[in-house]
Specification:
The complex is a heterodimer.
Chain A lengths: L7 E2 L2 H5 L2 H8 L7 H5 L2 H7 L3 H20 L6 E2 L15 E9 L2 E10 L2 E7 L12 H10 L9 E4 L2 E4 L2 H11 L6 E5 L5 H13 L3 E5 L6 H11 L4 E4 L6 E5 L10 H10 L13 E6 L4 H5 L2 E4 L5 H12 L11 H16 L4 E5 L4 H13 L7 E7 L6 H12 L5 E5 L3 H4 L4 H5 L4 E5 L12 E2 L10 E6 L2 E5 L12 H8 L9 H12 L11 H11 L1 E3 L13 H7 L9 E5 L13 H5 L13 E7 L5 E3 L7 E7 L2 E10 L6 E5 L23 E3 L2 E3 L1 E2 L2 E9 L15 E3 L6 E3 H11 L18 E3 L3 H20 L5 H8 L6 E5 L9 H9 L7 H5 L8 E7 L6 E7 L18 E3 L5 E3 L9 H5 L6 E2 L46 E2 L5 H13 L12 H5 L5 E5 L6 H5 L5 E2 L11 E4 L1 E3 L8
Parallel strand pairs in A: 8-9, 8-16, 11-12, 11-14, 12-13, 16-17, 17-18, 22-27, 23-26, 34-45, 35-44
Antiparallel strand pairs in A: 1-36, 3-4, 4-5, 6-7, 6-18, 10-15, 19-20, 20-21, 22-30, 23-24, 25-26, 25-31, 28-29, 32-33, 35-42, 36-37, 38-39, 40-41, 43-44
Helix pairs in contact in A: 6-26, 8-18, 8-19, 9-14, 12-13, 12-14, 14-21
Chain B lengths: L1 H22 L5 H12 L19 H4 L5 H9 L1 H7 L2 H10 L12 H16 L5 H49 L8 H5 L2 H24 L17 H7 L4 H4 L14 H8 L10 H11 L1 E2 L4 E2 L8 H20 L6 H18 L13 E2 L12 H7 L4 H5 L16 H10 L14 H9 L21
The chains are: A alpha/beta, B mainly alpha.
Chain lengths: 1060, 467
């Protein structure tokens, strides 16, 4: 009955009872030690005021106030349209269907525009690919439109720098270099657009010696090759994670970054939700990896193998499943046993399992296909109907291109929205210097454009026409929602201009796309008679489905042959793997401040990449990082002959003998957001022939050589655990430490109410123990509710009086459907004008995000499970923040909202101090310049203005949400602007509010529908249904704050025997 | 206290006396103005100098000088009757303006007609500058008389207090003398500089100062009565009042958006393609619209690629139009000196109206001066009030249809909003949305509740307007 809760922890610091950490936990607002401050030049400068300065400031302040008060109110202008477009009503948002696309990454979206400015990205519900889901990068893409670093006109190299020229001059210069005899290369990332491909084809027809070289920053070339070799078609299969009962992933981060994460996440979650206790079913997911990836953190079991052993592990499993495969090398006994067990489990799930691998070795991918074929998965979980085109890069073609470059055979290179100088590592820029003309078709500067001779600036996707065929038969359109902000031109239009294929109309590329569609998509459908009707419908919906019938492919490869080709690269004492993060990716997100400020879901670090080192228990009571390294220590990482300094983060679940580092950082020449953030790792990739592998087996890590400046890992900020004093020693001790000691030694050291384990922040269970766990949960909840009922002010009575009519807003978050992808955090920043504060401010616990996703480890210390908990204002009906506000700036509405009136707040921060969930944020500095008068100046007294305060970036602000000034508290409002809008719609239409009239930004961005928002007074609503689940719990229910947010217990399908 | 009341009474009676004088049945130009607006302005130009449907009224007394005054009254009361009777002046006018007939106003009294004539004469002579100047003058007079009264009152009270202290002093002295003690009577200076008096004065100053500061600070940034000059002398009175154009014809956002929307210039063109001359300013103001959108009133066509035209080209087009109208009005063929001056004046007015520091070109939007300004932290939605709440525009914006120059009617303060939310009844029964308020519906049915105000459904909560 009373099952002991599994231990829950957030990191080494709370497990070890780190003194600093404990201290910081006690005070609500972190106080930086003076010494640290004095060692920091910036702070010293900032502190450089004295009595005279004080008097000056005082005098200025008084004077300014007097002047401001004495002056007339400034005249404001109201500027109407000259000719108002029919479709625009000022103050009412318009939505246009379009498609976010960046290389092989795409997402059909609806773009919210206000007075012609795109301000928010929503998912497109009509898309069969994403069903309305989005990713963090798609959400953040609207900010890139207003990137101040974007190219503003065509440019030509003039010595060291680029100087602006006209399009005419550029076109003439390029055309003069082009003729049929010239060796031209168009280098591009995956192109998903059929029309853009047609444009390239037109170009290569006109110039027969032109070739298109496609590569991906993180290559899936081997998978494509293996499909071509074994099935006869070069494509990526249509994986069906929703059809699989057993999912095995060899290092493929399919929930985060691998091929089509939004689609896969949605499929995967279908079999991960648990709504009932009886007959609960879940898929089993086993991740074979060395680093805790986002996918690995969601897995039930992880089998730890070194990066160089991936091939061996695949061959071993294939031998067990298929037979007759020689296994090179040897795995650890633990891994072998686990793989043995896995093979049995796979065999039991014939036709209902799925094995995927991110390996970039053709042989290994062939083995994976062989397994899937032997298990009968081809046609069930590995389909060849709507095959994916999301990765098209070819390592071979890339290699060939590099050779051509080196031998000086190329006359002219066109780089189409890609960054090979960064991606390809050392040597590429040198060989490029042999090419006479290099043209960058890019929208913003990067390492490649910095060495090009010409820049033909391109439009942002929100300014472009186009189409995307991410999967066969699933086509979506891109339409412009704003006129190009600068003097730019779409890349395909540039190619067509240079190939002299442009029509003379105002929008030649639109004509090209339309003509292309006339002959392809329109011809293959029968619903519409005229093209115009068809086109209008397609533009409206944004998506069109055409033929995606099964191609009827079957496996024709040989596992034995492939097995003999698997050769592990030399094993090392210490190995390093390189991985993409969901925010920055392989570098494409690095220039976007929202993505830089979004914490990496697993490490919870921002603004930089951190070397993940394994953590081990010392056998007494401490967890130590490798080489005794602690979070934020700087180490020297030596790979081959190169040494770089990187900061360290202790990573639970990281395999001993391995470390890991994210790629995509250490950018140069790419604008102030990305430059100088983190270290570049691309030069360390291992190459075997043309294949690129994202690890290195020869690495050494030094001891601590310094401390990272402004170390920023947000998991240690705003924590909910509590400390206490040990009666015997009078020492401050973390409640979790007590729990830990108890956990390991059975020593009874009780009386520490409030550890993460003991506090009801998080409940979890394995599927096998679900019944007991739910009983335990109910028992606990009864206990809390009993305690909460011992009051003079019975809640039920109060509720009946206040909230039983009209609306009462509530939220339900299904932790089993949350993978931690972070789309909601960016959506929230975008919707609510949450400022970007930068690394230094984050390191001082000043991040402003209203919605954070807490990451907790639980279970096995060496190989833990992970739960992600989106945490935002819980809108408590008995809110402790409200009754401590001296000015009543935060109070409760009759609809159950915890309201925050910014203009009333005087910044005492009592509320933040009293909030048990730590969700209130204080504007320590003037992050938005909302406070500075006169506003709208490019600089204030010659100082650089903070990010987001310039007039271009301000265009992204949501005009319905106040931009907060310095000195006020802010927090999640349950998107009250959306609530009000939804209510108004219902009132205008004279009907009751319907489910779905109001969707919060986090809810609508979620790819899996983990978040349900609604009216608890509506018994028929989706929320009321969700609130009936027996797995529900309320975070910190025992403190009797009557939260309006309900979570479900996290359930995993872990099989402990894998760990034996 | 008694003094206070007496003074007040006296003051009020004086005020009443002057006021009653002012409303006695003497012809006044004020009354004339109202009458003119109600009866005449539809057909006669407000500047009294241009010819519209009806003739320009300036100098009408001169034109009727040959006939008895009663003929003029009769003509205004019923012109058709006089024409039928063959009055020479009436027939002359009829021949000039037929078939247009003047509406009969048989109920106009002699005083009323005299008032109108007074107003016409004054306006023609340029006495009546506009309603704003007048009303501010009135307010100023009232204010000064008020404060004068208070000063007087204060003086009287202070004097009384002084006398009282003197009397008390003397009494004390007498009493002391009776008892055989020596009593040093305080001198006036000593009384005035005593701790008590000084303390009291300081206290009063602090209280008064604080009160005034707070009162004024509350009003900071408020602009009730704000009536700035606009780039175009657009008259809501002409459009919404006389011509009865619906508010939402131009402000079409009011029913569907948070903004009421200032109409785009192309909305103006819907009518002003046909109406090229205004009743008050002739061509001067309407040409500004044409110059903004690039419409050539001579050819009745929009000008091709107007934005690329130079200022000289634009000037050529519109000065030609101004000159043309002048010639047509005067019935001459060549621009005289007066005409040249007029065209030049009109053009420079047009340029200064359509351009400013930020907007250098004549082409492009008309930059109006915004009158109703809410702070950035206030969310206000017109459609919520107009469409759902069925609030009349005039409730917040005042009698716009009688404002020649638009002014801010309401204080737009939070207290003003809150007050209305307290009093206003929600359209509870008509809108199905409110069905979710089951308890209120029950109470209404049982007769326990007679109305539901905005406040009752949370209309006073912070996050209804601040988010």
């Amino acid at each position: 009955m009373s099952k002991k809760q599994t231990q829950v922890w957030i990191g080494e610091k709370d497990l070890n009872g780190d003194k600093e950490f404990l201290k910081s936990q006690q005070s609500e607002f972190v106080e930086l030690p003076i010494v640290d401050g004095l060692g920091n030049d910036e702070i010293v400068e900032n502190l450089g005021g004295n009595r005279r300065d004080f008097l000056k400031f005082l005098g200025f302040g008084l004077g300014a106030a007097t002047v401001a008060a004495g002056c007339d109110t400034p005249i404001k202008r109201a500027i109407p349209y000259v000719v108002k477009p029919d479709t625009i009503v000022p103050g009412v948002a318009n939505y246009y269907a379009s498609t976010y696309v960046q290389g092989g990454d795409s997402c059909p979206v609806l773009v919210k525009t206000r007075e012609g400015r795109p301000i928010k990205i929503e998912g497109n519900n009509m898309s069969p690919l994403t069903n309305g889901g989005t990713s963090a990068r798609a959400q953040a893409s609207v900010l890139s439109l207003y990137d101040t670093n974007r190219f503003k006109s065509p440019m030509q190299r003039d010595g060291e720098s680029l100087k602006a020229i006209s399009w005419e001059d550029l076109d003439n210069a390029v055309k003069s270099k082009l003729n049929a005899g010239r060796q031209v290369r168009i280098v591009t990332n995956t192109v998903l657009s059929p029309s853009a491909k047609a444009a390239m084809e037109g170009f290569t027809t006109k110039y027969p010696n032109a070739k298109v070289v496609t590569y991906d920053a993180v290559s899936s070339s081997a998978l494509l090759e293996a499909t071509e070799k074994n099935f006869g078609t070069r494509c990526i299969p249509d994986y069906r994670f929703d059809e699989a009962e057993v999912i095995v992933s060899f290092n493929a981060d399919f929930l985060g970054t691998w091929i089509s994460p939004v689609e896969y996440t949605q499929q995967y979650i279908k079999n991960r939700r648990v709504n009932t206790v009886a007959n609960a079913k879940m898929s089993r997911h086993i991740q074979v990896e060395n680093h805790m990836s986002l996918t690995g953190s969601n897995a039930d079991n992880r089998i730890l193998v070194k990066p160089s052993e991936q091939g061996t592990a695949i061959a071993y499993l294939c031998n067990r499943v298929v037979g007759g495969v020689s296994v090179p090398g040897k795995l650890s006994a633990k891994a072998t046993a686990a793989l043995d067990k896995l093979s049995n489990e796979l065999k039991r799930a014939q036709g209902k399992s799925l094995i995927v691998s991110a390996s970039n070795s053709v042989a290994e991918q062939t083995l994976v296909y062989a397994m899937n074929a032997a298990l009968g998965n081809i046609g069930t979980t590995v389909k060849f109907g709507a095959v994916s085109y999301q990765r098209q890069g070819s390592d071979m073609a890339c290699q060939e291109f590099m050779n051509d470059l080196k031998s000086g055979r190329v006359d002219l290179v066109i780089f189409n929205e890609c960054n090979p100088v960064y991606d390809m590592g050392a040597g590429f820029a040198d060989s490029l210097s042999k090419v006479g003309t290099s043209i960058a078709l890019m929208s913003a500067p990067n390492e490649t454009s910095a060495v090009c001779s010409h820049v033909a600036p391109t439009n942002h996707y929100l300014e472009s026409w186009g189409d995307v065929e991410a999967k066969r038969g699933q086509i979506s359109l891109i339409q412009p929602v704003i006129e190009p902000l600068f003097d730019t031109r779409q890349s395909s239009q540039s190619l067509l201009t240079w190939a002299e294929m442009n029509s003379s109309s105002e929008q030649p590329y639109l004509d090209f796309v339309k003509n292309n569609w006339k002959s392809s998509v329109f011809a293959s459908q029968s619903k519409f008679a005229t093209f115009d009707a068809f086109w209008d419908a397609a533009l409206h919906d944004g998506v069109v489905e055409t033929n995606s019938s099964d191609l009827g492919l079957s496996f024709s490869g040989s596992a034995a042959e492939a097995g003999s080709q698997v050769t592990p690269a030399g094993k090392g004492e210490l190995e390093i793997s390189f991985f993409e993060t969901v925010n920055v990716g392989a570098g494409e997100g690095a220039t976007n401040p929202w993505l830089q400020e979004m914490p990496d879901p697993v490490t919870r670090t921002v603004w930089g990449n951190y070397l993940a080192v394994p953590v081990a228990f010392d056998g007494v009571r401490k967890f130590d990082g490798m080489n005794n390294l602690e979070d934020g220590d700087l180490v020297e990482l030596t790979i081959g002959s190169e040494t770089v300094r990187v900061p360290v983060i202790q990573q639970f679940g990281q395999m001993p003998g391995t470390v890991a580092l994210a790629m995509g950082y250490g950018r140069a020449d790419s604008g102030s957001t990305a430059e100088g953030i983190g270290v570049k790792v691309n030069q360390f990739f291992t190459k075997k022939g043309s294949e690129v592998h994202y690890y290195n087996a020869g690495v050494s890590v030094s001891g601590k050589v310094g401390k990272e400046k402004d170390f920023s890992c947000v998991q240690y900020h705003h924590t909910m655990g509590v400390t206490g004093t040990d009666e015997a020693t009078k020492e401050e001790i973390n409640a979790d430490e007590a729990a830990l000691v108890f956990f390991n030694y059975g020593m009874v050291k009780q009386g520490y109410q409030g550890s993460l384990t003991e506090r009801s922040v998080m409940f979890n269970s394995t599927l096998a123990e679900l019944k007991e766990s739910v009983e335990h949960l109910h028992h606990k909840r009864e206990e809390y509710q009993h305690l909460n009922d011992q009051t003079l002010y019975p809640y039920e009575e109060h509720k009946e009086n206040l909230y039983d009519q009209g609306h009462h807003w509530g939220m339900h978050i299904d932790l089993n459907a949350c993978t931690g992808c972070g789309a909601c955090t960016v959506a929230c920043m975008s919707e609510n004008n949450v400022p970007v504060v930068g690394k230094r401010e984050v390191s001082r616990h000043h991040e402003m995000t209203w919605l954070r996703i807490d990451r907790y480890y639980y279970g096995n210390h060496e190989n833990p499970n992970v739960v992600y908990q989106p945490m935002m204002c819980q809108h408590c009906d008995n809110a402790p923040c409200e009754n401590v506000c001296p000015v009543n700036a935060t109070n409760h509405s009759s609809e159950g909202l915890n309201q925050m009136a910014y203009n009333r707040c005087v910044g005492t921060r009592y509320c933040a101090n009293n909030c048990p969930y730590k969700v209130r944020r204080f504007n320590w500095l003037d992050y938005t310049t909302a406070d500075i008068f006169p506003a709208n100046q490019p600089t204030i007294n010659g100082e650089e203005i903070p990010f987001g305060a310039d007039n271009l970036t301000r265009m992204v602000l949501n005009p319905d949400v106040t931009v907060r000034a310095r000195g006020v508290i802010e927090k999640c409002s349950f998107c009250v602007q959306r609530i009000q809008e939804g209510k108004l719609t219902a009132k205008t239409e004279g009907r009751r509010l319907r489910d779905g009239d109001v969707k919060t930004a986090c809810q609508s961005s979620c790819p899996t529908g983990a978040i349900t928002f609604g009216d608890t007074n509506n018994p028929k609503g989706e929320l009321s249904k969700k609130l009936k689940s027996p797995l529900n719990f309320v975070a910190l229910e025992e403190v009797n704050v009557r939260s309006s947010v309900t979570y479900t217990m996290k359930v995993n399908n872990r099989d402990e025997s894998y760990d034996a | 206290m008694i003094y206070n009341r007496l003074t007040l009474k006296a003051f009020l009676s004086i005020l009443f006396f002057t006021f009653s004088l002012s409303i006695s049945a003497q012809p006044t130009s004020d009354a004339g103005k109202t009458l003119f607006k109600n009866y005449c302005a539809q057909c006669h130009a407000k500047d009294m100098k241009s010819v519209l449907t009806g003739p320009a009224l300036a100098g009408l007394e001169d034109r009727w000088a040959d006939y008895p005054r009663e003929d003029l009254y009769a003509w205004i009361r019923n012109s058709q009757l006089m024409i039928a009777n063959g009055h020479p002046r009436a027939v002359e006018l009829w021949n000039e303006y037929k078939p247009t007939q003047m509406t009969a106003y048989p109920n106009l009294t002699v005083d009323e007609i005299e008032s109108i004539i007074l107003y016409v004469n004054e306006t023609a002579a340029g006495v009546n500058k506009g309603p704003v100047g007048e009303s501010t003058a009135v307010v100023a007079v009232e204010k000064s008389s008020n404060s004068w009264m208070y000063v007087l009152l204060l003086g009287v009270l202070a004097f009384l207090a002084l006398i009282l202290t003197r009397v008390i002093g003397s009494l004390n002295q007498i009493a002391a003398e009776k008892e055989g003690k020596t009593y040093q009577k305080k001198s006036l200076l000593e009384t005035l500089t005593s701790k008590g008096v000084v303390g009291f004065v300081i206290f009063t100053l602090v209280v008064l100062g604080g009160y005034t500061t707070v009162n004024n600070a509350v009003g900071l940034g408020r602009q009730q009565g704000y009536a700035p000059d606009q780039p175009i002398k657009f008259s809501h009175e002409t459009h919404a009042g006389i011509n009865q154009i619906d508010c939402q014809y131009c402000h079409d956002g009011a029913r569907r958006s948070k903004h009421a929307v200032i109409p785009a210039a192309n909305t103006c063109m819907n009518c002003h393609k046909a109406i090229k001359e205004g009743s008050e300013y002739g061509t001067g103001e309407i040409t500004k619209i044409y110059a903004s959108v690039g419409y050539n009133p001579m050819t009745n066509k929009y000008i091709e690629s107007y934005e690329e035209k130079s200022e000289d080209e634009i000037k050529a087009i519109y000065t030609a139009w101004m000159a043309d109208r002048y010639l047509a009005e005067k019935g001459i063929d060549k621009l005289d000196r007066e005409g040249e001056r007029l065209v030049k004046e009109q053009w420079s007015d047009l340029v200064s109206s359509l351009t400013n520091d930020q907007k250098k070109t004549i082409a492009g939007p008309i930059e109006w001066t915004r009158i109703h300004n809410l702070p950035d932290h206030v969310y206000f939605n017109h459609s919520q009030h107009v469409n759902v709440g069925k609030v009349e525009c005039q409730q917040c914006h005042g009698k716009v249809e009688s404002m020649d120059v638009l002014e801010q009617h309401a204080p737009l303060s939070m207290g003003w909003c809150v007050n209305c939310h307290r009093q206003t009844e929600v359209k509870f029964g008509d809108n199905e949305y409110y069905q979710s308020y089951a308890k209120y519906h029950d109470e209404i049915e049982k007769g326990e509740r007679d109305k539901v105000t905005v406040e009752d459904i949370g209309g006073l909560e912070c996050q209804k307007c601040h988010y």
